[in-house]
Design a protein that fits this description.
245 residues, two-stranded parallel ribbon, 44% helix, 10 helices, alpha/beta, six-stranded parallel beta sheet
Length: 245
């Protein structure tokens, strides 16, 4: 299989592309209520950069459900009700908010012949699709990896890479893969896979905290100019600039 010369961007979803708000929070609350009898809130844990399996486990642990927290059957019950709840809310008019610069950035990147777009998110795959639909994001992502693939986010990079290579029919150089995310866990995930990372301070993690994790590039919000600068920098020997822009 020949090597692919394209640049790959793997996007996180929550806090990077959109904010799901009540669409997700209320659906999780109702799912926990149906399974445990208590309407637990996911706000009791720090969800930023985490996978859905991690979130469910931690919420259950924090509320005294030690055995259920590690039971895959219980997880599946919660997820089933969560997804039904999100789909129902979507049909009733609930929407996700698209973050600043996302629509223009994705539209511009889709037009670049040397770029491939994918997803790398802690969401369940079905949940990711619902959130993107709720935000009216119609970008055609080639492939990706999801929280439904593995509970450990650091394991998702190789999964996404393998799927993209199968989709493209070409090998991908890890150094040409960029994770775009709003959390230190996105940065750690990129490092674990040998990828590069654009951190965006559009979620709940302050820019200073992101900077301390040493991303390759740090921006306040996604923008066409940021991607233009990054891609232009890749053609220079000194590589992309890493400052906040």
């Amino acid at each position: 299989m020949e090597s692919c010369g394209k640049i790959v961007f793997l996007f996180d979803i929550d806090g990077t592309l959109l904010l799901a708000g009540a669409l997700a929070e209320e659906s999780y609350r109702d799912a926990f209520a149906a399974v445990t009898g208590k309407p637990y809130s996911i706000r009791t844990v720090d969800c930023s950069g985490r996978t859905d399996p991690w979130i469910v486990r931690e919420v259950l642990l924090n509320n005294g459900h030690g055995a259920q927290a590690h039971d895959p059957v219980v997880h599946e019950q919660v997820f089933t009700r969560f997804l039904v709840g999100m789909r129902s809310r979507l049909e009733r008019g609930f929407r996700a908010s698209v973050l600043d610069g996302v629509t223009d950035s994705l539209a511009w990147l889709e037009q670049q012949p040397g770029v491939v777009l994918g997803l790398l998110t802690g969401n369940l795959e079905a949940g990711a699709r619902i959130k993107l639909e709720a935000a009216s994001i119609t970008t055609r992502f080639s492939a990706g990896a999801y929280g439904s693939d593995h509970h450990d986010r650091n394991q998702l990079g190789p999964i996404a890479k393998k799927r993209l290579e199968e989709s493209l029919g070409q090998k991908i150089d890890p150094d040409r893969v960029w994770i775009v995310g709003d959390s230190v866990h996105d940065i750690a995930c990129a490092r674990a896979a040998g990828f590069r990372v654009m951190a965006v301070a559009s979620g709940s993690t302050p820019a200073e905290r992101l900077a301390s994790a040493n991303p390759d590039c740090l921006v306040e919000t996604l923008s066409v100019s940021s991607f233009q600068a990054l891609l232009g920098g890749l053609s220079r020997p000194d590589g992309p600039a890493g400052g906040l822009g």
